[in-house]
Structure formats: C-alpha cells, structure tokens
Amino acid sequence: MIIDIHGHYTTEPQALHTFRDKQLAGLADAARRPASTDLGISDEVLVKSVAPQLKFQKERGGDLTIFSPRAGGMAHHIGTEAVSIEWTTLCNDLIHRICTLLPGSFVGVGQLPQSPGVAPKNCIRELERIVTKLGFVGVNLNPDPSGGYWTDPPLIDKYWYPLYEKLCELDVPAMIHVSSSCNPNFHHTGAHYINGDTTAFMQLIQGNLFKDFPTLKFVIPHGGGAVPYHWGRYRGLCQDMGKPALAEYLLKNVYFDTCVYHLPGIELLAKVIPVDNILFASEMVGAVKGIDPQTGHHYDDTKRYVDQVKGLSEQDRYKIFEGNARRVYPRLDALLKKRGKPGTHKL
Amino acid sequence: MIIDIHGHYTTEPQALHTFRDKQLAGLADAARRPASTDLGISDEVLVKSVAPQLKFQKERGGDLTIFSPRAGGMAHHIGTEAVSIEWTTLCNDLIHRICTLLPGSFVGVGQLPQSPGVAPKNCIRELERIVTKLGFVGVNLNPDPSGGYWTDPPLIDKYWYPLYEKLCELDVPAMIHVSSSCNPNFHHTGAHYINGDTTAFMQLIQGNLFKDFPTLKFVIPHGGGAVPYHWGRYRGLCQDMGKPALAEYLLKNVYFDTCVYHLPGIELLAKVIPVDNILFASEMVGAVKGIDPQTGHHYDDTKRYVDQVKGLSEQDRYKIFEGNARRVYPRLDALLKKRGKPGTHKL
C-alpha cells in the first residue's frame, strides 16, 4: 500500500472561493458578508473536483492520500479569530465530505482556527471536533500565524502547550506547515514554506519540548526544509549547545516527508535521515505543477525518486511508503485495520 | 592556492566589545557614550587575535581567507543609522589593519552601514571607501536589516538599485548575508542564516534583476541555504513562472559557497550546482565549532569534504578552490597578480 501523507485540497470548487471573497469583503463592509455558510456544493461537484488528484494517484501508483485543506488557503493572518474559526470549520467540513465520499482514496487531516496573537488553546475545540467527530488522523499546525512576520512565540514556548497536551491525548501528530505569506520578502512556496520547516526544526533543537511531551509527534514537510542538507550543521549546533546527539534527541518525535522534487535531494534525505523517520509524500497537486524536462516526468512525482534510491531493502521501502505512516498516524492504522488492511510487514 | 572566501572576524579583542557596549549604552544614556573611537588595540594584539584562524588555515591546507567583520555583529537593527555608520567604520578598519599586517593570509571584505528603513544608497560612501581606500574585494549585503522581521523591501526592489549600480561600477561582488536575529523564532546561525540564503535566492527567481544589472554578482553563503537540496523545486517554480531554465536564468550571476558541514551535503552541492558556481569556504571560526564524532574532524573543515567528492577533475578542483574566486572577485585576482601570483590554470 502506498500512502501519500501530504496532499492539500488545491482544486476547490469556485463556490468556496466565492464564499471566501464575501467573507473577507465583510471585514470592510458588513453588508457583503455571506448570507450563509451553506456553500451549495453537491457531492457530485466535490468528487469531480478531486479528479486531478485521483488521476495522479492512480497513474503514479498511489493508494491513499492524507488530505487536508489548501495550506496557503489557511491564511491565519487574515481577518479576526472569528473569521478563522468560520473559515476553518468550512474547509475541514469539505475535507470530511471528500473523505466520506472517497474513503479508499483520502483520509482527513485538518487545519486549525489559529489567529496571530491568539492563544493556541483556543484551537482545542476544533481539534477535538475534527478528530473525534470527523475521524481525522492528524492536523496541520502553523508555526507562524502572522503569515511571514513571525510575531508569535516559538513552538517551544509554553504558549503552545495546551494544544500539545490535546494532541498527545488524542494521539494525533501535527504537520508543522506555514500558510501563505503577506511579507513581500517571502515567496510562499519558494521561501516561506521551506523557511518555516527549517525554523521549526531549529526551535526544537533549542528547546527540550519532547521531555515535556514524550509522545508528541511532529512531521516536518518539504523534506525537512534545509535540515537534511545541513545535517552536519544541525548535529554540530546541537552538540555545541551541550544537547544529546541530534538523532537521539529529536528523531523519536520528528519525521520528514519526501516532498523534495529531484532525485539528488531524495538520495541525500535517504542517506542522512534514518529510514524510520521518512514518510512518503508528494504534495500533489501543489507547489510545482510542471514536468521536468530532464526526466520527462512531473517534478512532484516523488515516488519515482524514492523508487530509484539504491540500497533500500524491501522492509525500508515498506516503512517509507506505508509502515511509518501507520506508526506516526495511529488513528490511520486503526482505521485501516478496521477496514481489514492490517499492513503486510512487522515494524 | 586554496582560497577560503568566507571567514568572519569572530575572535575580536575585548576592546571592541567594550566599545560596542558603551556605544549601545549611549543610546539609553548619552553620558555613557564612548569618549573616542580609538580602540587602543595594538598591532600585536590584532595579530594574536587571529591566531586561531591562522592555525586552522595552516592545519587544513588553506592559503588565503577572504575576511570580513563578524556577520552576527553587524546587527543593523540595533540603534540608529549613525550608530551603524560608526560601528561599521570601526569594524571595517580593523579588518583592514589585519589584512595589512597579514597580507598573505587575509584579504578584506566589508560590512555596510545599513539600517532598517534607511535607503541602501546611504551605504555608497562606505562601499567606495572600503574598496578604493582600504583595498577590499567585496562586501557583505544584509537582505534583512531588521534582524529577523524582514520589514525592508526584497532585494529585487528598486530600493536597492543605487547600491547595485555602485557594486557594478566598482566590480565587486556582494555576499548576501543576514546578521543576528532579534526575532525569538529564528536562531541566528541555525535558522536566520539559512532562511536568509533561501529567501534571497527565491527573490532572484521572482524578479529579473540581472537583466538590469548583467555584471552584478551575488554569492549565497552556507551552501545556498536550502536551494541545492530543493533544486528540483526551484527549477520547477522558475519554469511554472514562465522564466528561462533556472541555471541559464541565474547562474551567470549567482554563486554558492561550500559552508555545508558534512560530506553528503557537499556531494549534493557538487552534483546539482555547476562547478563554475561553487566557491570554497568554511566560515571558520564560525557557527559550528565542535568536532564531528563521526569523522574525528571539525564540522567546519569543509576542505576535507570537497577533497572526498568523487568525479571532480583537477580543473574542477582548481575552480572551486581558486579559479572561481578569482573570477567572482576580480579585485582579488588583480591583487594576486600584482603579487606575482597569476593562477595556474586557464578558466
């Protein structure tokens, strides 16, 4: 079974964008607020909207995508907390409907109603709802709700602790994923995303978060930002700070996905990061949509790169494509087992 | 000849720090301002202060280091433009004295008296002074004078153009190097530096800066931040934006150094970035000071990694260690030629 742990709903029906326009127009002119949160999107329209993802999934040999709202669309920096709550609820509900309509292809992960300067504990209600009511197996956590100005406290600050307590209690991992950038210095998918990954990992080195939350699990997307490429720098910084060896210190709790869009990058990832910490992902349809003229295949067809990495055993490949996802997302494993898919290898 | 293009003066005498304390104390209490900019540092103390660099240079087989003030020390976000000017002048003068005392070991690169919200053209006077009067061969340009809040315009904005005009006129490259971070989200050497590199490169993809400045040259330090690891992502983003192929678009003007502190990272760099765009550097004594228990050598002894990369010809190695530095820093080449060292290979 091939599980892609990182897919966003980037092909939403126009009705969702129309709602968002009205919702944000309502900030300036209350008369323009949407009259209802009923988007009027039929099941048929929803299924049709994910046809591109299903086509790529099939063509590339994927089975199941862990599916969440568009990351850039979360835009926690826009509007008020109330706007964020309304928008988040709508976006999560759409994911839930898609996962209910196409349960063999998609399993849900949610966004949180974060808002800059607002305590993360305010997100607990939605977190509980999406996990216990909607059956989601994880959540995307934005380390910078300001959208590129980084004005909230670092992830190791106690500010975030109530949310971490709930994540542990529910036994769901968080993917640390920024949203769009309103800072003209940061292109969102080319700088802000990658910087967000790098920044979060370095914060985890600085703190000692997993001493307080030994069962908390974070997935750092986009191949861990700059981290694997600079693994020597991070090992050295960790050592200079008098911490335990980096792998021992963080890799019981931190995982990287394979959203790295060329073979040499994936080879490096597989070389420096233990296979137990690598989860297959492509983020299609996402940041990079084109076909690489050097290969003739889509840049984001990351399964091809993983398939080409030499020196991985059958067991290693099982871990990357399925086993680690089951371990990191226990509710996914439980769901699959309930469906009579227990996994084929011991871990 | 082995030229290390990225060394900072991180072993400054205490007198410089004492001055800085007084200078910044003077912001709160004018009575505490330093009485004089005469630091009272003797030549003997200066030479002794760089003994660690000279020892490493010799042990590791280096010949010449392109030497600039401590990057984290520039701290353009602290105090006023006047403070930045006074501090910059002092720091550059110290570099000049060291390069004059030890001309065989160090060649100077300067910092600029940047200040958040202040037009970069105000730095032209100091840029002219360090190049024409002090004989510096390049300059460090901070893309984020705010120190981690990124409140100034991106590097492709016309805001920066007067400075670029002067860089072209003087024929000196700029290393794009942030300084310390006052944003608690960004560890300075573990997040802010790497993010700065990644961000700057992505800005260059977004703009078309080298159309306006075909001879402008930028060095992106720390192995280019996240860029080589995500080279497929950047090629794909460039392509999706309808730009020319990435290498053709930017690599006539943009170079990467080898400050990547483990062999797999350097191997990746050498695999994806053309050899003409890679310049040897270690940034010692810098961000990572320890010895890697996996190798028994210092993390920042990057020459060992480059030496171990397979498949580089003698010509390739000459380019990385010497030839590219002469090409990117024409004033360095001229200086060395004047000293009877013309370089041993054609490029």
Multimerization status: homodimer
Distance between the termini of chain A: 15 Å
**Largest protein-protein interface:** A-B, 58 and 58 residues
The CATH architecture name of chain A reads: Alpha-Beta Barrel
Number of H- or I-type helical stretches of chain A: 15
Please state the structural category of chain A.
Answer: alpha/beta
Q: Which bin fits the share of residues in helices of chain A?
A: 40-55%
CATH class category of chain A: Alpha Beta
Give the SSE order of chain A as H and E letters: EHHHEHHEHEHEHHEHHEHEEEHHH
* 3D shape of chain A: globular
- Determine Rg of chain A (CA atoms, Å): 19 Å
The share of residues in extended strands of chain A comes to 5-15%
Order of strands across the main sheet of chain A: 1-2-3-4-5-6-7-8
* Contiguous runs where pLDDT drops below 50 for at least 5 residues of chain A: none
How many structural units, i.e. domains of chain A?
1
Largest sheet of chain A: 8 strands, parallel
CATH fold assignment of chain A? TIM Barrel
